[in-house]
Amino acid sequence: ASLDMSLLDGSVGVEDLVLLEPLVEESLLKNLQLRYENKEIYTYIGNVVISVNPYQQLPIYGPEFIASYRDCIFYELKPHIYALANVAYQSLRDRGRDQCILITGESGAGKTEASKLVMSYVAAVCGKGEQVNSVKEQLLQSNPVLEAFGNAKTIRNNNSSRFGKYMDIEFDFKGSPLGGVITNYLLEKSRVVKQLKGERNFHIFYQLLAGADAQLLKALKLERDAKSYAYLNQEVFRVDGVDDAASFQVVQNAMTVIGFSEKEIRQVLEVISLVLKLGNVEVADEYQANGIPASGIRDGTGIQEIGEMVGLSSGELERALCSRTMETAKEKVVTALNVIQAQYARDALAKNIYSRLFNWIVNRINESIKVGTGEKKVVMGVLDIYGFEILEDNSFEQFVINYCNEKLQQVFIEMTLKEEQEEYKREGIPWTKVDYFDNGIICNLIEHNQRGILAMLDEECLRPGVVSDSTFLAKLNQQFSKHGHYESKVTQNAQHQYDRTMGLSCFRICHYAGKVTYNVTNFIDKNNDLLFRDLSQTMWKAQHPLLRSLFPEGDPKQASLKRPPTAGAQFKSSVAILMKNLYSKNPNYIRCIKPNEHQQRGQFSSDLVATQARYLGLLENVRVRRAGYAHRQVYRSFLERYRLLSCSTWPRWNGGDREGVEKVLGELSLSSEELAFGKTKIFIRSPKTLFHLEEQRRLRLQQLATLIQKTYRGWRCRTHYQLMRKSQILISSWFRGNMQKKRYDKMKASALLIQAFVRGWKARKNYRKYFRSGAALTLANFIYKSIVQKFLLNLRDNLPSTNVLDNKWPVAPYKFLSTASQELRRLFHQWKCKKFRDQLSPKRIEILREKLCASELLKGKKASYPQSVPIPFHGDYIGLQGNPKLQKLKGMEERPVLMAETVRKVNRGNGKTSSRILLLTKGHVILTDTRKSQTKFVIGLDSVTGVSVTSLKDGLFILHLNEATMSVGSKGDLLLVSDHVVELLTKVYQAVLNATQRQLPVTVTDKFSVRFKESSVAVKVIQGPGGDEKSKLSCKKKGSHCLEVTVQ
Hints:
By secondary structure, the protein is of the alpha+beta class. Among the domains are: about 15-265 and about 355-400 and about 575-630, CATH 3.40.850.10; about 630-705, 2-Layer Sandwich (Alpha-Beta Plaits), CATH 3.30.70.1590; about 865-1005, Pleckstrin-homology domain (PH domain)/Phosphotyrosine-binding domain (PTB) (PH-domain like, Roll), CATH 2.30.29. About 45% of the residues lie in helices and about 15% in strands. Strands 23-22-21-20-26-25-24-27 form an eight-stranded mixed sheet. A seven-stranded mixed sheet has the order 1-2-16-3-12-6-7, sandwiched between helices. Strands 28-29-31-30 form a four-stranded mixed sheet, with no helix packed on it. Helix 3 (about 80-95) crosses helix 4 (about 110-125), helix 6 crosses helix 8 and helix 29 packs across helix 33. The protein is flat, with a radius of gyration of 55 Å.
């Protein structure tokens, strides 16, 4: 049969497995896989949530989702842990019923994350206030502390809980948290001294070494490198995606929030370092005087450091590790331990210290979050405990874990059936007995007080004489040889069965989730869990307050020869208390499933999930849920969903909800055996009936959709037609009105024109005798003259200022006066300019002519020109009148000197500059040495063929000479730098013009060529990073024919 995956609109697969058809393992796995591949990780079995670990962060958590699930009923939204937590919290708050949430699944299935989500949801939706927020913070911060000390990396899971945890969160009548109590179960303390390949010790060891600062490590006598410690797996130190150093800071902060003092945190870390250092204590072979093997400490440094840390002498600690005191009522006997026994004692001490420290931390957290006895409260319990385990080699730990899961399965079946029975009773529907597998026989096999496996294990541990694991197995074989759920090699041989998978030291139990083979090796030792009395007494003698408090039995006043209870007996007692606690509360279940062994997102291993589905008994759960009626729903919700199937209830129903449901189902002609009407709910026996209702609803929705579409299209066409008709009428009325208006306006204009002509004709006829024929022209001329006279008089009284730079002029009042106004403006400007020129002295005129010449040559071309405009040209910048030596130079007989200043001549060979004095006369350019006042060059102005200057703010320029001058004696063009380059070039230009009657070419460029006798040099000028007013030049020779000048 095919699997129907579309029960509800928009859902992926079947959201509630109670409605799965056909109900077989294959269809269940396909449904889970389909939902998992579409990132739908939650599925319901009634009110049970199945959670498949996605191994990635999904966008389905946070305040928005919490708010949406807070305001809805259980089945209203997609399956989610928030929905289950909301139902539990509302039942606790509104009905005052104690709740418990049982989270089960194997390692790596996501149990710890599920418990965090439940707690975060409850913390978000419960009350607020300073005290309430403090309690919520303490409850939430207990998680990182317990994870650090109780979780570890395993092959299956990077953050595996190696202990069971049950937390009771206590609330007041308003639903605000008051506090809580945490109970822990069976910490895997063997991990302290030994880990499997690829696994790590508990997180706290690595967090301490990675996150503690150097000062703290020195105080704890620890090294940063984890390889230095024998108790830490030498292969795996880090976990991908986990920052141990940051986690250490989180743990410290969490302990502070919970209420640990700085002193207590320091003492806890000291005990952790003590456990690490115990693993490095090496035991060596020694022999007593009589030849009996003994042991001793190989290197006393480690023992001495431990002693200094906890306040013990190294001698006392060594005696406790290497010897044992046997005490009876009459005497004491001290026995030396051999190397193997001493190593066992050392490891037993390390395991006991860590296990007791963990219990102390749990009790310390409970002290901080406990609630006063006088307050009335309701309780929500959250159970996060190890799931059913079947390993290749199953030992005592797997035995007690699977025993606990057997008890939880028993609770689950009984509570589920009880809930079903109570609901049927409430609704007034007869309850039919449901056949299911009762695993009470398996629980009895393990926990019976006289004939159970745990009782026989305790009996074997306490029995005098030779006791071993093989004698325990023989006793089991004898006791359970005919038990239907027990097998071993001996029982198989008696029944002539051959099974090579069964070892000689093994027995097998047929659990509800499958057969598990246990190896009895070390069952006796692990159940005894003995710690030699010498070690307890030595630890009690320590000066360390916390370590001393962990071993109260070491106090001589409380010394007892009575044997402590075994590990199995303690666990059995704890499970009994837990079961009693669970039976007293309303249960809510979260079943966690691991989709693959590699912790990879998107991978779904059908075989692995099928195994876990059998462990968790999912099919059995569905069958129990469907034993009576597979689906039930309150009348109002059912009627709201299916009332469209009946003409009597659609589109409106005014009667009661139950009557409406009866009407709907009556018209569908469903079998009466498929239906049952309760007091508030309708019950449907078969999922096929529900599928039939959904199919009818789907077809009816299509019909209604077609009807709605038809009605809508008709309404839309009708509305469109009415709108078009209304628009057409409006357009027609506006058009007719506009046409009549235009016609009226035209008639009115014609009538007015005719009236005007008639009135004009009458006026001319009546008054022609009073006017001459040329009166209109005379009147027009008079008006024109009056306007012109008024304009001129007004212009006289409002003339602009006589400043030559003021271009203001009154606007002509009439358009026909514009030409005259512009001509008057031009004449006025010329008059102002002439008046300004008449006031100037000859010297001032000459200066302005030079400025005009400079403007024509360099304005808009040279960057330094705007700065030179307001500065007058001085000509003499070296004090020529006071220097008689310069007046006697060759060429100075030509007077006057037009320009005298100090320039810098650029050397063509290396780019360096040398200072020279430049004198410009009417006929020559003279360059002299500034020191010796001797003439270097005398160049006639007729030899100057041109000038080149850069466009930048520098003073670089070139005097280009003709070839005749170079052949006479000059070495070529002159490359000079002047601080007054604008003035100098202007005066050279005017001097050449006056002397030779030709215009000197002035070229503004940043690339030019300088000619010498033999060759020419290309000069390239570039702008450097600077840009101040006083630019500096840097000349660099680039090869033999190129000079680069940088303006900075």
